Amino acid sequence: MFPNTAASDILNLLNKCPQCVYAGFDPTANSLHVGNLLVIINLLHWQRGGHNVIALLGGATGHIGDPSGRNTDRVALSNDVIQENIQCIKRNLETVFENHKKYIWPEKGDKLKPVRIVNNESWYKEINSIQFVSDIGRNFRMGTMLLKQSVQSRINSEVGMSFTEFAYQIFQSYDWLHLLKEYDCKFQIGGSDQMGNISAGHELISRTVNKKVYGLTLPLVTTEEGDKFGKSAGNALWLDAKKTSPYSLYQYFVRTKDSDVERLLKLFTFYSLGEIKDIMFKHKEHPDQRYPQMCLADQLTTLVHGENGLAQARQATQAIYSKDVKSLVALNSSDLEQVFEGAPVVNLLLSPGISVLKLGMMAKCFPTESDAMRIIQAGGFYINHQRIKNINEVITESAHILPNLISLLRVGKRNYYIVKWQT
Prior knowledge:
alpha/beta; five-stranded mixed sheet; 48% helix; elongated; ATP binding; RNA-binding; tyrosine-tRNA ligase activity; aa-tRNA-synth_I_CS; nucleotide-binding
């Protein structure tokens, strides 16, 4: 929020009549990730308040690349890749808004004003580049542009900054001006790393149409260690179920540290502060039950993947942590591969006389036969959660193979292998 704007003025404006707010999403990948969720959830809060919400897709600005929060230039994407990414991100947004309407706020979902999803390519393709530089570019001052934090950090780095990315703030500024003219959009929200771009838009609008507009930034959520939230070893938790399964998303939040969970409940869920206080009180009474983590995981998985996604995640959790083979029977081949993500998958022909030892070697569970004999006989080998110690036991369909013609093998505590049987 800009310092010369009193909070009371904004509150009066919001209470006076429905306002319009937007947030932008550039197509840098074929899915949004957990790091984008805080902005999306903020848009949902605006929608709950009766306001008009716009999600802007950067079909044009995706060709340029936002330097904010970057140490190097973004890799240039082809037009085909950008168009594919746009469609995928559009589906992400539509799914989250629909899940919120159906499952998170069903009692009032029908009264929500639908989100408007727009693509800035639709107006840039109609603009003459010379005219754009003449009409819009003259409103920007080099000194001001150079002082932006996103620019300073790059100019002073070893790799420097390209003119393409330096000009990005002009395009994001014009996006806001366009939305103001088309939809009377007075508010823009974004992560705290977007402050420079948002302030540039504020300045452009002040110079050209002399209307009051307001920028709001949200914190970049990080772990206690300072890592960006939703990323682990450089790999994002994606909102697309094909890239990150509902189970993986669910488990990520179930494993939230006690020191982080209350803050994340406030940021990422729609529980009231009173409800969160009650949730944390229950946690103090029975910390081993991880009740706040379950509440966080339940609501976020429902928001991203719907009730079916949550059911799949719970079913998968049961399959992993339950010792009951029935939990595995409920999963199909695709479910098992998602649940045991990264587990080697082996296709084997079911023939008479295959022993436990031979199965372990055929599935490449052990480096050598002597290792296999030692580990199996010591009780470190499992088939469908059942410990098998007899290396000569013969594999049969009734005893060792699930109705879906799959066997789940485990060596030790965490090394899983999936066998798909061909009959």
